[in-house]
Amino acid sequence: MTVTMTVTMTVTITVTMTVTMTVTITVTMTVTMTVTMSVTMTVTMTVTMTVTITVTMTVTMTVTITVTMTVTMTVTMTVTITVTMTVTMTVTITVTMTVTM
After folding, report:
1. What are residue 21's phi and psi, to 5 degrees?
2. What is the pLDDT of residue 41?
3. pLDDT tens-digit profile of 26-69?
4. What CA–CA distance (Å, rounded) separates 74 from 68?
5. Which pLDDT score, from 0 to 100, does residue 47 have?
6. How far apart are CA 63 and CA 56, in angstroms?
7. Distance from C-alpha of 31 to C-alpha of 74, rounded to nearest angstrom
8. Ramachandran assignment for 95, one of left (phi > 0), alpha (psi -120 to 50 degrees), beta (any other)
9. Could you tell me which residues come within 8 angstroms of residue 51 by beta carbon, excluding any fewer than 6 positions away?
10. pTM above 0.70, yes or no
11. Do residues 96 and 2 touch, judged by C-beta distance below 8 A?
12. Which of 1, 8, 10, 24 is nearest to 81 (CA)?
């Protein structure tokens, strides 16, 4: 008696991977601005009195104003990248046995 048996087995393996990556970029900028203004005034006064005395006065004034402004800006950017990969492997095994008695 001869018995021949064939067994076929199929194995399917599916692997799903999800990779999520978050990148945060922070940029801080500081801008400093200085404004200087100078004002110069000259005043000339002439005073004449009747006893024939003439007085001439010159006054010079300088006014300096300095303004300093600092502006700080922060910009934050967030980038999220999601990658999904699916790998499918199929393995087929065939076994043939022959038994003779």
Report:
1. -125, 130
2. 87
3. 888 998 888 888 888 888 888 887 777 888 888 888 888 998 89
4. 20
5. 82
6. 23
7. 12
8. beta
9. none
10. no
11. no
12. 24
Tokens linked to 84: 């999904």
Length of the chain: 101
Token pair recorded at residue 48: 């004449």
Distance (Å, whole) CA 77 – CA 28: 12
Which residue's entry shows tokens 């990969």? 85
- Looking at residue 37, what is its pLDDT? 87
Amino acid at 60: T
pLDDT tens track for 65-98: 998 899 889 888 989 899 888 888 888 888 888 7
Q: Annotate 53-80 with b (16+ C-beta within 10 A) or e (fewer).
A: eeeeeeeeeeeeeeeeeeeeeeeeeeee
CA dist 26 and 98 (Å) reads: 72
